[in-house]
Each structure stands twice: as C-alpha cells, then as structure tokens.
Amino acid sequence: MSEQVMKTPTPVKDEDIRLPWLVRARPYLIILPAMLLLIGILYPFVVGVYYSFTAFNFKVPDSQFNFVGLRNYVRMFTDEDFLYSTYITLAYAVITTGVELFLGLIVAMLLNRDSRVAKILTPMLIFPMIIAPVIGTLVWKMMMQPSVGILNPILNFVGLPSLEWAAVPQTALFSVTLVDIWMFTPFAAMMILAGLRSFPNAPFEAARVDGASFWFTFRNLTLPMLTPFIIIIIVFRFMDSLKMFDIIFAMTEGGPGNTLMTYQLTAYRTSIQFQRMSAGLPYAILLYIIIYIVSMYLIKAWGRAQRRAAGY
Amino acid sequence: MAELRLEHIYKTYKGGVEAVKDLNLTVRDGEFLALLGPSGCGKTSTLRMIVGLEEITRGEMYIGNRLVNKLEPNQRNVALAFETYALYPPLSVFDNIAFCLRARSVPKPEISQRVKQVADMLDITDILDRKPAELGGGQKQRISLARALVRDPDVFLMDEPLSHLDAAQRSHMRVELKRLHAQTGRTTILVTHDQLEAVAMAQRIAVMNFGVLQQVGTFDEIYNRPVNEFVAGFIGEPPMNFLPATPVREDGTFLLVAADNSFRIRVPESLHERLERSGAKKVDVGIRPIHLEVVDQPADALEEIDATVATFESLGEEGQLAAVVGTQTVLAVTSPLLRLDRSDAVKLRLRPDRIHLFDAATQAAI
Prior knowledge:
The complex is a heterodimer. Chain A is mostly helical. In chain A, helix 3 (82-111) packs antiparallel against helix 9. Chain A contains twelve helices and no strands. Chain B has two domains: 4-234, P-loop containing nucleotide triphosphate hydrolases (Rossmann fold, 3-Layer(aba) Sandwich); 241-359, CATH 2.40.50.140. Chain B is elongated, with a radius of gyration of 25 Å. The model of chain B has no long low-confidence stretch (mean pLDDT 88). Classes of the chains: A mainly alpha, B alpha+beta.
C-alpha cells in the first residue's frame, strides 16, 4: 500500500486515439463506387435538365449558354404533333403491357403442371429474350416484307388478305406491338410461372375439397396471390415500353410519316438527328416524370398487394 | 351423411413406398372414428385418399353406396380440416369460411348466417374481418375447423385438429367437437397420433402402423384385448411392459419362466387353453404399469417377481416406479406415498387377470 500512490489519470487527448488513416478513410472508400456511379447518373441528368432551358444546338457554338427559360417546354406542349405523340407513346405501352400480361398469364397457367410437355416448353420460353431486340425486329421486318416475307403467305393460306404491315399507318402500330409482344410475353409468363410455383400447395388442395371450380379458385385465390407478380411485370414492361426505342427504330424509324413518333423517338430525332439538343430534351424529361410517377404508384401498389397476398 | 367403406385399399407412392397396405375399414353412418397411429403409419395417406387428394393405387372406396375412386374431391362431398390449416392467405377469416358456400352459389343471407353460426360455436366472431397471417396457431386451427364445419358434408375429416391448441383450448375443443358430432350425427373421422384425443372423442378407434391397419374397436376392446404387441404398447400411458418368457409345465403347474431366469409366474387359468393351442415356444408377457403392484407381504410366489428399484418418482397423485427385473426394466404405477430408494429390493405382483400373452415370434396376442 505504501508504494502505491494514487494518481489522477491524465485525460486522454483526441490525438492519442487517432486511428491509422486507412481505417479512418475506410467508410468513404466503401461508398466510393456508389458515389462514382451516382455522379455518373446525376451529372448527365442535371446537365440534361439544364440544357432543356437553353437553346443548345450542336451547330451553334456556345449556344449551351444561351438561356431561354421555358421556351423549349412551351414549344413542346404547343407542337401540333405533341398530343399524337403522347397518344402513340401511351398506346404502345398500354397495348404491349396489357397483351403480354394476358398472354403471359395464359401461358404460365398452361405450363404450371407436372407434364412432360411443360418440362420441354418451359426452358424454350427464354428463346425470344436471348435475341437482341434490334436483331429480333429486323428478322420480323424480313418476315413482314411483302415480296419475300413469310407472314403474308401464311395469312393468305388461312384465308386472310395480305397486310402491308409497318409500311402503312393503319397497321404500323400493330406491327411493332406484335414484335414487342412476341419478345416480352415470355418474360411475363416466366414471372407468373415463378409466382405459381412459389405458392404453397395446401390452400389449393383445400379449395378442391371445398368444391371450388377452376374459375372460382382462379378469381378468388390464384389471382389475388399473383397480384404482386403481376404488378412487377407491369412495372418492368410498362416503364420499358414507355421508353421503347429499339423495336420502333429498327422497324420504321418512327414512320411511316410520324405514325410511330413516340416521345423517345421524337427526342432522339430532334436532339440527335437534327442536332437541336435542347429542343428534344423536354420530351425525355417529360417521359422521365411520367415513368417516375407511374413507377412510384406501382411500387406502392406492389407493397400493398404483397401484404394482401401473404395474408395480412 | 353416409357410410364410408374402404375395401382392400393400397397406396404406393412413386419410388415404391407403400404407405397403405390392404386397408379394410368401414366407418358406419354417423359414427365418430379415430384413425390413430404414430407418424408415418399411413393415416394421413388414408385421409388424403378419402378426400380425393391422393389417388387410390388399388382397392375400392365407397361413400354411401357410391364408388368414389375416380371422383374429384369436389364430387365426393367430404370436408377436411387440414393440420396445416391451409387457409386462403388473401382472404379474410369470414371469406375463408364462406369460400365453399360461395363456390356452391349459396345465397348471400344464408352464407352470412351460417358463417356467423359456426364462428359463434368456435368463438372466432371477433376476428372475422382479420387476415390469416395476423392470427395465432390456435385461431388458425379453429378457422380451418370452421371452414370444414360450415359445410354439410357426407363425411367430415379432421387431420390432427387439436395439435396446435394450448391445453385449455384443447380440452374445450374436445368437448365441443364431441358435442357437435352428437348434434349433427355426421360421419366423422379424426386422424391423430394422440391416444387421449382418440379416446376422448371417438366411438371407435382404428390403430394403424407401417401402413397396416392393426385393430379397430372401441377403446375398451383395444385397451383390454389388444391384438398384438404394437397395439398393446401404443395404447395406454405409461406403455405396457413386455417381459420375454418361456411357457413350461412343471409338476402339473403351467409356468412362465423368464428368458433370463429372473422370475417364474403361473400362467393365469384363463389363458391355459389359448396358450396351449397357440403352440408358442416363446412368449412376451405383457402387463400394464397400473396392474403391477408393489407388495409388502409376499403372498403367492408364483404371482410375484423380484425387482430392484431404479428410480421412483412421486408425482403427487401417483408414484412412478422404474424397476429392474433381470435384464429388463419395468414401469409400475403405484401409490405416491411409497418410500423407495435406488437399489431397494421390491416384490412386484402381476395381477393374474390382467396378464396379456403375446407370441414372441409373431407378436400376435395369444
């Protein structure tokens, strides 16, 4: 006891507990890739929004600094083709999403059984999806070709008249949506099939014992349980087809005339082909706003549907 | 309501697993029958075949006088309360119960009246607008029962209907289900592994093991006259003791001598003839723990066996004694007031009228 002298401990200074710099920098290093990615996404977006308020034209030097306020937006909304462009953008998205969902549901219901045919056909579903959209479209374009294409002979064979497909305004929308539906119905079918396969067996056995018909069970049990999967399909397909470019461009470049000039095609033609960057941007930004609002709404609906399907 | 008749029913799964073998069983019109057996004994396969969720491999099944082998579940008019509840997740409790009525286009006012009635009975009126995932196991089980009860089926089946209830709910539901059966007079089949449930509710019990029906009868018949060692050991708690022995004639007395020479007891008079007729060389002596008595004053040496106490537990209302006889351990239910310590020597008396004999080779009752 005598040797030990009680000393008040010296207070620990901040410098004393300094960690090696690498340890201190670690959190920042970890989020660095995400930051870089964010910059990669945000920078063009912000610049794009900025350009939409200028008179930026590739052919006019320094025009990106020529601030014109809302002029580009006013021009877009007052353009005589704007309403038609809106119509064709929405029509394309609604038709393709709707039909793909409907056909996907039927295909998935047919494949959701323990048969050899289903086992062989299910992997084949992904065939259209492994082809690049542009190439798939070009192949369809060849098949639609009036002189050498195979589609008209098939139509004639079953007693229908030849079509001029994407070459005339009357059937142009039909032709491109047909390609989209061919290409993406398998996606819908696979999502639905994944949903069906994930369901527990017991409630469906109970429904059989309860004496429910196929339709009754489908309406009251299968469909509510599938809703989250259906909404996912709508989120993906609706957003994707609102901004669809590949198929329309490869098929007709937006033609004939302006028949298939969606927002995306209009933005591309104005900003890139005509090099009037700032005039095309409002279409892209409007498209962004529409997709943002629709997807926010759908994702909320998805959350609700998922809770409902799980039984909450 | 109808009689259910199973004739030479077999169920063989893909891969050759024989879940049910040559099952012959008749459930009388209005009868409450329990299908009792350990896990994997084929009782659930049997149930699923009755309902129509599982194909019958061989044999014929009749509901009423209708051959139902090829009928879909909805054509059989049977109701099943699933062990896993099998509730419809997206539907409210009310809609779950109303499902089968709606599927059969029952008029709306009648639906709500019938749902309310069955909900009252099962005490789930307050959760009718809730969703299944919000509910506890006991509530789900009652909904699953309600769903089966709301119908008017020919045959009513329950798969382990009380397994997820707590003790109080369980005894309450046992009484409820029994009362319900008495009220409706429906042909009812209860599948359970719990003999207490079977005994408490059913009029007859069918015991299954390894896919084979062992014995059908009232509890009394099964308990007092088990047809083989499996049934004898499965029914009764604690289970019956089995002691291997050899029947021997000695000076005109018919004796059972332990395989390890640890005891010699007299063959009860009533079993003489049957034992001789069976010609069994080796037997298993079966005696229930409550028929093994600890004796203070040795009286008849040929009714008593020597044992050594292994453990003795006083459980309040009764005592449980585990004692070693030769190389075997036997259980006896005794008075809780005994003072017994490990290694104490005791004499145990086998009540002669309660001795069961089984052929050691076939395990069948003699």
